[in-house]
Design a protein that fits this description.
4 copies of one chain form a homotetramer. With 282 residues, chain A is of the alpha/beta class. In chain A, 20% of the residues lie in helices and 40% in strands. Chain A contains 7 helices and 19 strands. Chain A has helices at residues 14-27, 36-39, 50-56, 66-76, 102-110, 183-186, 271-278, and strands at 2-7, 31-35, 47-48, 59-63, 83-87, 97-98, 114-127, 133-138, 141-145, 153-159, 162-169, 171-175, 191-192, 198-204, 214-217, 222-226, 234-238, 243-246, 251-266. The A-B interface holds A 159, 162-166, 177, 180, 185, 189-193, 195-198, 200, 208, 210-217, 219-220, 270, 272-273, 275-276, 279-281 and B 159, 162-166, 177, 180, 185, 189-193, 195-198, 200, 208, 210-217, 219-220, 270, 272-273, 275-276, 279-281. Strand 13 (191-192) of chain C pairs parallel with strand 15 of chain D. Chains A, B, C, D: Involved in the regulation of the intracellular balance of NAD and NADP, and is a key enzyme in the biosynthesis of NADP. Catalyzes specifically the phosphorylation on 2'-hydroxyl of the adenosine moiety of NAD to yield NADP.
């Protein structure tokens, strides 16, 4: 068992948790490698770029919360290597355990008593007027939204080639089951079980009150364009990262990605228990 | 091509539409049979019980709105025979055309230019304390709700054996994609594409504001019981039909049914167009 | 200072809290009287009916949660005497303190360091076809709802004589600011500051998705009738108490009551702090 | 009777409607004056600045939709002169009639058979760190929102000096009853009767699902600041007009304005009828 480690370099205490994790693992005979930026946190350590790290290791551990997990997933890129989030302090939707549980985590790795839960991802393809193409993938969601103009945007949405709707709204979210507990939820969307073969289109503050979230089969292809009458251009962002302007003549296609994110779940940890705790249903 | 006909016996004008449909079809060489209760609307006609009608015919036409379709689906029972709803006046979510379009409908039957769209159904299994079992199926939804007591009910919900939540609410709905435009929508649930392999658990006026709708993969098994602390017993109903009290010691299991409802969709009719029209998105 | 005491006779520990309260108060020179049913909890004690108790005392203390407060408000009836809820265990929206704070409460009474916060109430007048009239008042809300039929009810609502809407819904709530944190909130209604001169009409699971809550000036008069096309008669209840059927020819008028509920608030207790805690905004 | 006229200079057909209105009015003996920018639409006409126009006229007519009304209200500034919106084509929430009804409108002016409905406005006072102050007023709402960063903003809200909440959200709206049918509604807020002495604080896509709209008495003073931990600065805008960045050390106070907007309502026009039509409750 060889473990790769990626830590949030901006979180206080990351270095200490990395050292503590390495120590816990080595005592149990699990070797480790560090990702590039993570290595910089540790005196004298050398690191490997994230994609190579995932290739060389049996499991990648990510130290930090859900935001760090999102970031790591993008830095690693497509991989079949399972990823385990170790949250510092709290419990997250994406993380496997907290930093209080390093021993439990190490034991689970050793006796292979964990479960690997694949999460579907979205592939986004932006086709520009000149025919050029940009591809990316989303763990949580892709968001189209208005900028600072104070105006609504108008978005034409198509499902498998058929018009779904002309939306007049602050924006539109296409979210995975994983993303259903993030921005889509705040915008009024439903929760989606992580094993559902579905994703969801959720309008943000739609002008028409009947524009509810629409859950789609994950075989569906969603295409989005800025409508001609839109009062302002749309911005788009993936997983709440970099926000960019979508030229009015460009078209975004959103569909299920070819690869998945393989999350490690420790035995006896239930997704619904996390849901109850995070949403304070208790 | 042999067509079975079921009409809403309580709707004014049903008899006239039945006669008009028979006339239109026979002119084009399509023979027809009538269901029992429908035959009573027509002087001198004889009918066949709904299940036999479906067995003997290539297609069953149902004259009436979405409510009549629900009713017909239950009277027919499990069948692979496609069903076409002919709405009198309006457009419905389940119906294929309106009674203004009998010619178009007949032509589509003749040249087989229609599409058969299977809709998933829910199977409900109630296990009582004495071990006795009641089975049924739902086209739209199964609803647990409080009665006239003015008190909340408490429901324990389990997904695949794991606790989902203790709900304190006016009730709880488990709905199919087909049912997502019915009661679940009024209770705040999302729209679900009819081809999605999913169903949805929607609480009704939950005491906890974070108890959102939860979309599940249609391989999931939901089990519901009245919680011990419930202030009143739960009532249950299927597709808004007969309302019955669920004994506190009984358990309801809800899962995907083994059969589907096969709806006829005329060429060039889009589900999303119906959605836009019915929800006035236009 | 003479204090009347009403306790929830169905709550375990009520008797002990009553004795503890009497003890705490008498040590500080505050005399007490017990309400009828409360006196039955205490060996050898005699009580006074609730309305007389309120008349004879400077303050009425109610031991129990928000439900007990609602009940006590109805048993006392119209009065200017301030009421202080002493919650057993938790914090309530209506209660002034918890049973851990009896000393603080007694001191506040003695040095008059409390605030009296008047809460508006609703007066309901039901006019039956034969001209007979029933009057009552609501602390939280009056609810019209469907019974066990599984059918929607249709309600015609008028504001100051002008048609507001024909509602097709599970029901309709007219709530005070006090009631805005109760059933109306679960049905999707807004929070209303307790000092706002307003009440709110909130539909329950309306058929039309655009039927939002409507906040009215408290000078408004709301009239509700079952619409002719209603599939079933409406039930009504006040503050979630007794549920009764409203004859189809009867009419309910809802307006601000002539009297208020005078709640005691201890110094430095903020309504918004309670809101944050109860709704877990923290 | 002397009427001032303000038209939307960007709307096709404004000039024709202005001429038609002048013609209709003069035939009935009502004289007119034009606002500056409106005069530019008409060959050879001269105009008066909006504030002077309101001062010199008995009534100001605004040709255009709700957006034009908002704009005109800001250009006129505080005034007691009643304003009548004449919508081109549709019906608006703020407008008095459509351009098909110029005769009805003129007759109503002549025989004084209209009603003047005052609408409360919000006064906003921004206090910057250097002590400088900016004042403005809002007809619909003041909005604080995040910019293009993709990050949540954190806003501390105080009511009459007491902490209401630390919001983590896309933004926060403080809306008048008039604004309750605009952006606040899209963000999930309630409808508020135009005569209610209330305004409403509505969070936009709040991180916490229990952060509902809060209706306040219009005597309340709301103060908003960007919280220290906010991931990005807040933008603010008034009535969806110019969007500006709020320095992190600045503080916005929102309270009822000293003046109102006096809208003309024609006899027999009901606010609730407009509501039903605009929200398609019919």
């Amino acid at each position: 068992m060889h473990l790769g480690i990626i830590a949030n370099p901006h979180k206080n205490g990351s270095a200490a948790t990395v050292l503590s994790l390495i120590d816990t693992l080595e005592k149990k005979g699990i070797s480790t490698s560090l990702e590039d930026d993570t290595a910089k946190l540790i005196d004298g350590a050398t690191g490997i770029p994230a994609p190579e790290l995932a290739q060389q290791c049996d499991v990648v551990a990510v130290l930090g919360g859900d935001g760090t997990m999102l970031d790591a997933a993008h830095r690693i890129g497509p991989t079949d290597t399972p990823v385990a989030g170790i949250n510092i302090g709290n419990l997250g939707f994406l993380t496997s355990c907290t930093d209080d549980e390093l021993d439990i985590f190490a034991d689970a790795l050793l006796d292979l008593s964990y479960k690997v839960v694949p999460r579907i991802l979205l592939k986004t393809t932006i086709t520009h007027q000149d025919g050029s193409i940009e591809e990316d993938f989303a763990v949580n969601e892709i968001t189209l939204s208005r900028g600072q103009t104070g105006r609504l945007i108008s978005i034409d949405a198509f499902i498998d080639g058929a018009l779904l709707n002309h939306y007049h709204a602050d924006g539109l979210i296409v979210a995975t089951p994983t993303g259903s507990t993030a921005y889509s939820l705040a915008a009024g969307g439903p929760l989606i079980s992580p094993i559902a073969s579905a994703f969801v289109v959720t309008p943000i503050c739609p002008h028409s009150l009947t524009n509810r979230s629409l859950v789609l089969d994950d075989s569906s292809v969603v295409e989005l364009t800025t409508a001609e009458e839109s009062e302002c251009p749309a911005l788009y962002s993936i997983d709440g990262r970099e926000v960019r302007e979508l030229p009015r003549t460009s078209r975004i296609k959103v569909e299920k990605a070819g690869h998945k994110l393989h999350l490690i779940r420790l035995r006896d940890r239930s997704y619904f228990a996390t849901l109850r705790q995070k949403l304070r249903w208790g």
